[in-house]
């Protein structure tokens, strides 16, 4: 049966959701900030993984009460260079490939929507076997990154599905907040390090341990 526009679709975050990268991002941001003389506890950085790099840096600088001029673009480049070096050790989360295959097999539309750059995303997707027609939206495709809903709205548009008929799957409160802003349902995964309560308070209507756990309970989401 051909999917209809009113049928639900899944919009997947990538980092911390399908690939185990959240803590590599924390380490890369910590080193990049330290290079500019900004010493921030790693847990504070972790709380903002999933936001755009610009928003992450601005919030951390304000919290630390720093007044020196910050070159955000330079910090983003340093983060990207450090993160790219760690990519060779990055693994898929258990069940990530099986979950996407299950949805494809059941003719459920899905897309990947991530704040990462197009080049970075291309490399992160290499361990996954994706259908040729897979919709992938990156931070290069939108003006505003999460917690703005623009990435998810763009992915929904490319699938020809109204955003309010979509289920956003992510690991951070920023994913949940972005989904809520456009009345999409949100599913939280614990694989990025946020707790169940945090994800639920930010709008998640279901929370699972990881992609494998989500697949095991896929009927909860109306998928046979």
Question: What's this entry about, in short?
Answer:
The protein has helices at residues 22-35, 42-46, 53-64, 72-86, 96-105, 118-124, 150-159, 173-181, 196-201, 211-216; strands at residues 9-12, 109-113, 135-137, 166-170, 185-189, 206-208.
Layout of strands and helices, then pairs:
Layout: E1 9-12, H1 22-35, H2 42-46, H3 53-64, H4 72-86, H5 96-105, E2 109-113, H6 118-124, E3 135-137, H7 150-159, E4 166-170, H8 173-181, E5 185-189, H9 196-201, E6 206-208, H10 211-216
Parallel strand pairs: 1-2, 1-4, 2-3, 4-5, 5-6
Helix pairs in contact: 1-4, 3-4
Describe, in plain words, how this protein is organized in 3D.
The protein is 42% helix and 11% strand. The protein has 10 helices and 6 strands. A 6-stranded parallel β-sheet has the order 3-2-1-4-5-6, with helices on both faces. The longest helix has 15 residues, at 72-86. The protein starts with 8 loop residues before the first strand and ends in an 8-residue tail after the last helix. The model has no long low-confidence stretch (mean pLDDT 91).
CATH topology of the largest domain, which one? Rossmann fold
Q: Name the overall outline.
A: globular
Percentage of residues in strands: 5-15%
Q: Which residues sit in consecutive blocks of at least 5 with pLDDT less than 50?
A: none
- Oligomer designation: single chain
Query: Distance between the terminal alpha carbons, to the nearest Å?
Result: 14 Å
Put simply, the count of helices is 10
**Secondary structural class:** alpha/beta
What is the top-level CATH class of the largest domain?
Alpha Beta
**CATH homologous group name of the largest domain:** HAD superfamily/HAD-like
Mean pLDDT: 91
């Amino acid at each position: 049966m051909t999917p209809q526009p009113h049928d639900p679709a899944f919009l997947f975050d990538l980092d911390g959701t399908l690939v185990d990268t959240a803590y590599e991002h924390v380490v890369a941001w910590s080193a990049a900030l330290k290079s500019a003389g900004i010493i921030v506890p790693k847990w504070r950085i972790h709380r903002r993984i999933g936001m755009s790099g610009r928003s992450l840096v601005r919030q951390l600088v304000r919290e630390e009460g720093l007044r020196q001029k910050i070159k955000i673009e330079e910090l983003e480049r340093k983060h990207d260079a450090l993160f790219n070096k760690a990519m060779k050790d990055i693994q898929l989360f258990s069940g990530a490939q099986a979950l996407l295959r299950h949805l494809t097999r059941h003719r459920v539309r899905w897309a990947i929507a991530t704040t990462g750059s197009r080049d970075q995303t291309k490399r992160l997707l290499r361990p996954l076997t994706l259908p040729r027609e897979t919709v992938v939206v990156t931070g290069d495709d939108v003006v505003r990154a999460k917690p703005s809903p623009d990435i998810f709205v763009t992915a929904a548009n490319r699938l020809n599905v109204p955003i309010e008929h979509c289920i956003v799957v992510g690991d951070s409160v920023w994913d949940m907040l972005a989904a809520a802003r456009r009345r999409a349902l949100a599913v939280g995964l614990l694989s990025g390090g946020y707790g169940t309560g945090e994800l639920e308070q930010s709008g998640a209507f279901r929370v699972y341990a990881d992609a494998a756990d989500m697949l095991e309970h896929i009927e909860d989401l109306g998928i046979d």
